[in-house]
Design a protein that fits this description.
This protein has six helices and twelve strands. The protein is an alpha/beta fold. It has one domain. An eight-stranded mixed β-barrel has the order 1-2-3-4-7-8-11-12, surrounded by four helices. It has a two-stranded antiparallel ribbon with strand order 5-6. The chain is globular and about 50 Å long.
Length: 316
């Protein structure tokens, strides 16, 4: 998710009543059957259970269904799109959405019609406590801010055909407007101002934001909350103590990466060398290690887009 690529104008803030009732992913009624089918189909990736997929900005998936991963001799195994962003939601200049309706539809066709891959998954570009319009430094307010973001994420996801049961919090330091750190380490004069008024947020307050989002998702939907980040970024936000520990949280990571598509991974390791690095106490051997953005994000670009390795064996 290379956030510095694009900045679009925002939309108005909206929290709709009845969000919880609409929060079930559209495809989860058939998820168990399709997941079983996916594990028994030829994968075009190794070892069994793994699929290649893409995320965020559109990539050129062409030809007839069942669709193939662009640039690789493999089945198109899934699409992970941004269902929302704190800055877009609040109408900030620089807020954007990274979504491809075409790629989502192609991934869904492979999943629902051919039993291949995971279909569509979604993530929310998460705002830290420092971009909370009501920031007061307390863990209680940070938790409430996380819950408000989760409510909007669920409302947005209900408008898409989401088949994957994990909703990811995208937690990173993007280096783009309106808040280069997304409000995880700095407090801003207002969410959209870009002006820092305090250059420190306790790790416990950051963790309260995370916990508020996760708790709301668990209480108001059929999704499992997950986290997208990388080990170094995670530690720079949450430290290395108890606030950083999430050993039983589903994860999607993005380090290491390569611009060379011929080095596509087998399992959790690139053919060209380097293995996926998870964070917060999760390792590649954990059932909570679900995805790896191995090319295209974090500034390591290729000629096509963001590429992911997906372990469908741990779908629940």
């Amino acid at each position: 998710m290379t956030w510095w690529r694009l900045a679009l104008s925002g939309c108005a803030l909206l929290l709709a009543a009845g969000i919880a009732a609409a929060a079930m992913p559209a495809g989860l009624t058939q998820a168990a059957q399709a997941a079983t089918a996916a594990r028994t189909q030829p994968l075009g990736d190794d070892p069994p259970g793994f699929w290649y997929g893409t995320d965020s900005w559109p990539v050129p998936v062409s030809g007839k269904a069942p669709y193939s991963e662009p640039g690789l001799s493999a089945t198109y195994g899934g699409y992970i799109g941004m269902t929302g962003s704190w800055s877009y939601w609040l109408g900030c200049r620089g807020g954007f959405l990274a979504w491809s309706a075409a790629n989502s539809a192609q991934a869904d066709t492979n999943y629902t019609k051919y039993g291949k891959g995971i279909g569509t998954a979604v993530y929310w570009f998460m705002g830290g406590p420092g971009v909370d319009p009501h920031y007061n430094g307390s863990a209680a307010e940070a938790s409430a801010w996380g819950a408000r973001q989760a409510a909007q994420a669920l409302a947005n996801a209900a408008r898409e055909h989401v088949t994957y049961p994990v909703l990811f919090m995208d937690i990173e330091i993007p280096g783009v407007a309106p808040a280069p750190d997304n409000g995880w380490n700095s407090v801003y004069t207002s969410p959209c101002s870009g002006v820092v008024k305090q250059s420190f947020i306790p790790a416990a307050v950051d963790r309260a934001d995370f916990n508020g989002f996760a708790a709301y998702v668990k209480a108001h939907s059929k999704y499992t909350p997950g986290a997208y980040s990388a080990a170094g970024i995670w530690a720079s936000i949450f430290g290395t103590g108890s606030a950083a520990s999430i050993p039983r949280t589903d994860e999607w990571t993005y380090e290491p990466e390569t611009a060379n598509l011929s080095g596509a991974p087998v399992g959790w390791c690139l053919k060209s060398g380097g293995c996926a690095q998870f964070f917060g106490g999760v390792t590649s051997g954990s059932p909570n290690a679900l995805m790896w953005q191995w090319s295209g994000g974090g500034g390591v670009r290729n000629a096509i887009g963001d590429y992911d390795q997906i372990d469908a064996a741990h779908l629940r």
